[in-house]
Design brief:
Layout (H helix, E strand, L loop, with lengths): L2 E6 L2 E6 L3 H6 L3 E2 L19 E5 L2 E5 L13 E6 L3 E6 L3 E4 L9 E8 L2 E2 L6 E2 L6 E5 L2 E2 L4 E7 L6 E6 L3 E7 L7 E6 L5 E9 L6 E7 L2 E7 L5 E2 L4 E9 L2 E2 L5 E3 L2 E3 L13 E2 L5 E3 L4 E7 L4 E9 L5 E9 L3 E9 L6 E3 L5 E9 L14 E6 L4 E3 L10 E5 L5 E7 L3 E2 L1 E6 L1
Length: 422
């Protein structure tokens, strides 16, 4: 190694000529492009970063660059596409926000230690999508919950969701840290396709997506028309439908349930029941007949049959309170055995008519005024909330008549008879 002495301001300094290649191996370039003096050393360049997109944001992260003696870089500069500085930080990550839709930015990391600048890392690219709307499910039944989710909308954007141009579904705000936003709504009641449009408040291009509402249903009808009686089983015909056509593909066993205002509990606590063994077998045409019992008396109620998924349907019916027995009371002569003997000659049988209770066996009211028809006797009325008629019915038995049957009857009641004899 060759050396030489130089004098600077009265100080003699010894310089040794070090080959240029050796100097480069132990130094960084300085921030102003010069070569470092003093304790020249080497340090690793920027490490290949990882990039994680979240909506229109990208988080860039990297591992530490260090000197052989141990100290790590004191700062890192992240650059996008080789020209735009994203951040200069002493941490090991930073986030680039509100990036252009449908872009592929590339990120590099340059480490710094005090005034030294290390080599720039290899670039890592991210993929940013366009504003997108997704719906789940894309095929629903009427009233089913549908979730509408947007991605790749700008941070803090308030997104408005509208169905078929007029039905407002709600709004959702994209988080400040990027990501997705969603609303949930009930599927339209009309069958067919329905289009949802999501529009952001920060000028993003609207995104749209369609979903379909199934036209599958049950056609439900009463096998026999007319009012039903609480506690008395009756048959209901259930036909699987696809739009206006019967659906033979529904043939087979399916678990059913009943609900609706007609199936709610009676005052005594008994709710409507499906009497047929479940699952119910549908024939080759997609039809089944089920037995149902309802217990709550009401003028008009809806009975709904459902498989809990794709099919449901309803029918309207009237349920009358169960029958309550009528009896002869305050009779003269007595008819406690079912026969009343009035003796010879022309004699009369008189008796009031009573109902056994003012509610049926399920707690439904039977307390309204009721007109009682008496065969072979005069009619009577049981007043509201009363159990016995206010007046007695009278039957005259002529001497030449051996016997006559007197019967009291009223709608919704079990009739009673008395044989009157001489």
């Amino acid at each position: 190694m060759k050396g030489r002495l130089i004098r600077l301001g009265g100080i003699v300094i010894a310089l040794f000529l070090v080959p240029a290649i050796a100097l480069a191996a132990f130094s960084w370039s300085t921030a102003n492009g010069g070569v470092a003096a003093g304790k020249a050393t080497a340090m690793s360049g920027g490490n290949l970063p990882t990039v994680t997109p979240s909506g229109r944001d990208v988080t860039v992260a990297w591992t530490q660059s260090t000197l052989p003696s141990g100290p790590g870089a004191t700062a890192y500069t992240v650059t996008r596409n080789g020209t735009t500085t994203v951040c200069t930080t002493s941490t090991l990550s930073c986030t680039d926000v509100d990036l252009a839709a449908a872009s592929s930015p590339s990120y590099t990391v340059t480490p710094k230690y005090q005034n030294w600048v290390g080599a720039t890392s290899t670039g890592a690219s991210a993929s940013i999508g366009s504003p997108t709307l997704t719906l789940s499910p894309t095929s629903a039944t009427a009233g089913q919950t549908v979730t509408a989710t947007v991605t790749n909308f700008l941070d803090n954007s308030t997104v408005t969701f509208v169905e078929d141009g007029t039905r407002a579904l709600g709004t959702a705000t994209v988080p400040a840290s990027g990501g997705s936003a969603f609303v949930q709504f009930s599927a339209a009641t009309g069958s067919g396709n329905h289009t949802v449009v999501a529009t952001g408040s920060r000028g993003e291009a609207p995104s749209s997506k369609s979903y379909s509402v199934s036209s599958l249903s049950f056609g439900v009808s009463l096998q026999s028309a007319g009012n039903k009686t609480a506690g008395t089983a009756f048959n209901v015909v259930v036909q699987a439908m696809n739009g206006a056509s019967t659906d033979a593909t529904y043939a087979g066993a399916h678990a059913l349930s009943i609900s609706g205002t007609a199936a709610v509990s009676a005052p005594g606590g008994q709710a409507g029941t499906l009497n047929t063994a479940n699952p119910v077998t549908f024939d080759a045409t997609g039809k089944a007949t089920i037995s149902v019992s309802l217990y709550k008396a009401l003028a008009s109620g809806t009975l709904t049959v459902s498989d809990g998924g794709t099919h449901s349907g309803s029918v309207t019916t009237t349920v009358d309170a169960a029958a309550v027995a009528l009896t002869f009371t305050s009779s003269n002569p007595s008819c406690s055995t079912g026969t009343a003997s009035v003796g010879n000659g022309t004699h009369s049988f008189t008796s009031k008519v009573s109902r056994a209770a003012t509610v049926d066996g399920y707690g439904n009211a039977k307390s309204a005024s009721v007109d009682v028809t008496v065969t072979n006797g005069t009619p009577v009325t049981i007043n509201t909330n009363a159990t016995e008629s206010a007046t007695a019915s009278s039957t005259s038995l002529a001497s030449q008549t051996t016997s006559v049957v007197v019967t009291a009857s009223a709608s919704g009641y079990t009739s009673v008879s008395c044989t009157v004899v001489h």
